[in-house]
Amino acid sequence: MLGRIIKQISNDYTVELENGEKVTCKARGKFRQMHISPLVGDKVNIDYNNKYILEILDRKNELIRPTIANVDQAVIITSVHIPNFSSNLLDKLLVNIEYNNITPIICFTKLDLIDDEYRKEIDMYIDYYKKIGYDVYLNTDESIKEIFKDKVTVFAGQSGAGKSSLLNKLDCNLNLATGEVSQALGRGKHTTRHVELIPVLGGLIADTPGFSSLDFNGMSNEDIRDNFIEFNEYKDSCEYRDCMHDNENNCEVKKQERLE
To answer: pLDDT at position 50, please?
Structure first.
């Protein structure tokens, strides 16, 4: 029987069948030999009677952190205050998500906690990311509720940035645990302990453990370069076909950077 994995806790996988029934299954040992593990979001074929996952269907994409497959879009929850805004982390997330063929959406949180001067600086970043083609929302925007229908969405970002709080706002019946941010570390406690797909606003949203760093594991320098979308308009104008937009002569991207 076919279904989708909607939750994993330890070695137990909750599979939602096409008829809406939820079944808790184990994974067959053959997956270890194949060096593959079922992920939340996987479409699978199960042995209904014995409650085993028999087959993992082809994935269109997968993320390592958070660990999930077959995602349509990723909402990057971006705090501007404890934890403070990091354009470096946001850019890393954007590049990683673009690389995995997932549509990134940016959502800024905690703007009510900053002063007017800092808000002007944040607004400049918001305008910039909109200018280069990203959809950007504030957590107070009611229009954000319109983006989830018929989509599998992952929430990503630093712990303490407000992922669970935003989910609770989108659906007040969820009552997901939220936690205070550590003043010493500047990041939140991990209130989310597992990955689970939750039905919200006509789609499925994953509430995932937060994290404060991200590496470009498995990505080459060229992969990183090619997934900065703001480079795409100018890359063909560079003098060298394989320009890395770093210190090369007559790099069109570097010229535009100086103009800005």
So the answer is: 96
Asked if 175 and 225 touch (Cβ cutoff 8 Å), the reply is no
d(CA 4, CA 44): 6
The Cα 246–Cα 251 span in angstroms is 8
150: region left, alpha or beta (phi > 0 left; psi from -120 to 50 alpha): left
Candidates 179, 149, 141, 174; CA nearest to 162 is 179
CA dist 112 and 133 (Å) reads: 25
Count of all residues that appear for the chain in the document: 260
Give DSSP secondary structure letters for 176-241: ----PBPTTTSSB-----S-EEEEETTEEEEE----S----TT--HHHHHHT-GGGTTTGGGSSST
- List CB contacts of 103: < 8 A, sequence separation 6 or more: 72, 73, 74, 97
Query: pLDDT tens digits for 220-237?
Result: 999 999 999 988 888 777
Over residues 154-177, mean pLDDT: 80
Phi, psi dihedral angles at 181 (to 5 degrees): -90, 135
List CB contacts of 27: < 8 A, sequence separation 6 or more.
Answer: 11, 13, 37, 38, 52, 53
Quick check: 11 and 26 in contact, CB under 8 A?
yes
**CB-based burial of residue 75 (10 Å sphere; 0-12 exposed, 13-18 middle, 19+ buried)?**
buried
Give the tokens for residue 253: 């991207």
Given a contact cutoff of 8 angstroms between Cβ atoms, the answer to whether 111 and 185 are in contact is no
What is the pTM (predicted TM-score) of this model?
0.82
Cβ–Cβ contacts within 10 Å for residue 1, how many?
Answer: 15
56: enclosing H helix or E strand = strand 52-56
Q: What is residue 90's three-state secondary structure?
A: helix
Tokens 């593990």 belong to 37
